[in-house]
């Protein structure tokens, strides 16, 4: 279940990154200083949000790696005892 949730969240973040990149490519150039400042604030908020999401995906991946390592170690230990 944890693997499925991690994979699902990873796919969501990846999709968000792709949409964000697409939006940035089609962004109009703004000559109005106030509008440009508002867009910069919104962009910075988006960057922060994506950084947080990416960091969370990395954390979940590390947790999953630790869980897998524990299962692998326990399986090896059980096999060693039964040998």
Q: What would you call the shape?
A: rod-shaped
The helix tally amounts to 2
Structural class: mainly alpha
How big a fraction of the residues is strand? under 5%
**How many β-strand runs?**
0
Q: State the helical fraction.
A: over 70%
**Main beta-sheet annotation:** none
Task: Summarize the SSE layout with pairings.
Elements: H1 2-25, H2 33-82
Helix pairs in contact: 1-2
Give an overview of the whole structure:
The chain is mainly alpha-helical and 83 residues long. It has one domain. It has two helices and no strands.
Brief sketch in words of this structure:
It contains 2 helices and no strands.
Defining traits:
83 residues
